[in-house]
Amino acid sequence: MNEAIGFWAQSDAITLTKGESIQDALSKLAESESSELPVVENKRFLGVVKLHDCIQWLTKGLKWHEPLSTLITPTSRTVHAHFSLQELHEWPLYVIDKTTDTFAGVFGKKELQAYHRALQQTLAQKNRQLEWYQLCFDTAYEGLAVVDENGVIQMFNETYSRFVEVTKEEAIGLPVEKVIENTRLPVVLKTGIPEQNQIHQLQGQRMIVHRLPIWKNGEVIGAVGMLTYEGLSEIYRMMEKIEQLNITYKQEKKLAAKKDGFGQMVGLEEIIGESQAIARSKKIARRAAQSKAAVLITGESGVGKELFARAIHEMGEGKNGHFIALNCAAIPENLLESELFGYAEGAFTGSKKEGKPGKFELAHNGTLFLDEIGDMPLSTQVKILRVLQEKEVERVGGTKPIPVHFRLIAATNQPLKQLVKEGKFREDLYYRLYVIPLHIPPLRQRKEDIPVIIAHLIPKLCKKYQIREKTIDKEVMRLFLQYDWPGNVRELINLLERLFALVDRTHLQKSDLPEEFLIKKEMPVYPVYQKLHDRNEALRLIQNEEERGLIENVLKEVKGNKSKAAKKLGISRATLYNKLSRFNESLH
């Protein structure tokens, strides 16, 4: 619900001018049923005229037709339109437009009553929603248990209650380990790593569970435990159904896997991530797979551009053909042409006697993936453009054109449009490639995926290094979420593998991380503080200034709503008020 006073204020309120008489004022006061009215002159708020003052002046012998200028009383009850009604302590309030400094309306008794009625309606709606959530929570087939950061049960549904033979009322408020035997929810609270599809021994029965941490503002504030299957027999029945439904698909995958030398096939489900950013990229990739048009994948190094290219191939109609990949930056310019076009018999000294097919031929009826296409020489770009136009290729040293039909996917971490402007990339080729643009977000823009990616990697690394179990400390996860990951997912994978290879302990700690995670970035010394001899004092002032800048930016984003600002900053309203008060004092 909109809590800004400007939304509720009466913009066409009854007002007075300083040239009107006491009689005019009394007449308008009676009409408005208010004890005071604002005085506005040329859209400027001058103050208020009170009924009490009018009557008092008349008793002193002042005439009815006297101008109001002597009765105008200044008031501090003025606010801007973004003032939050949660801070309301008195009324009426007079709203002033912040940009023009003009009178914008009045918030009085009637407006307050309307706001309270809306609050009651909103509260009733929220209560209905809460009731539905509670009913869904209790009706869920899965057993659900929610604990806070201390491992104390906050929510517990009927299904879980039935399994452990403890009522909801008894369970809520108890440490989870006293209610659920063998629980690993305290481990998930400690590490911040989700544990999905794990076997859990409960009441003598083996069950499949999920354990998911709840993150807020970079901190684990709780965890959810979820029983997904009542025993392994139910899983076997489910697996049989899936096997029957997907038998054709499995056969196709098996055939694709036999294509030795042409890379491993990848589906979108194997690209790990649940954030909105990666979900958008997956959505575009699915649509692209249904088309035959060229795809241009952009993104920083290490984000997984080739994985997306392989997934698009696997979902497209050319999936029975080969997926041929070539890194344009890795091949020397003098060899790039023969790699792409192949060469005929005896084309040059040292060539194979029978010649060699190029990537274009190998990708026939399949997909050609040109990675780092921004590094391709202009001379080669011209020849590629001709292949795309004519749909035929001629080997180096050959004379016979060979028809080719393939799906083209290109990728780059460079700004191709800028390269076109600089004359370093052909404009006609750019628009040939830029049919379906697909951008892969960097890891720093989807940090909520980091715990999910790690949870996916840990079992694989444990198997690779023959380790029964390895966990990650919550402080390590916090640092992971703060780090910007310039190398993206590839850097995360490499770091985890390094930690698995080098750290003997089964629990990875903060001290195991490389220096870039542990060294705090140096605070810049601003010129205004260079005269200060006390460096600690200088740093404190700098931090205050940066904090003030952050709060000001957030307040702008939420249009001055302090409740929303406090929520976004992850602090209480009282803390926000204290900080604002401290900042104001430092200005005087």
UniProtKB/TrEMBL annotation:
The keyword Transcription regulation applies. Keywords: ATP-binding, CBS domain, DNA-binding, Nucleotide-binding, Transcription, Transcription regulation. Residues 271-501 form the Sigma-54 factor interaction domain. InterPro entries: AAA+_ATPase (IPR003593), AAA_lid_NorR (IPR058031), CBS_dom (IPR000644), CBS_dom_sf (IPR046342), Homeodomain-like_sf (IPR009057), HTH_Fis (IPR002197), P-loop_NTPase (IPR027417), PAS (IPR000014). It comes from the Bacteria. Residues 129-173 form the PAS domain. This is PAS domain S-box-containing protein. NCBIfam families: sensory_box (TIGR00229). Residues 9-68 form the CBS domain. The lineage of its organism: Bacteria, Bacillati, Bacillota, Bacilli, Bacillales. The keyword ATP-binding applies. Transmembrane segments: none annotated.
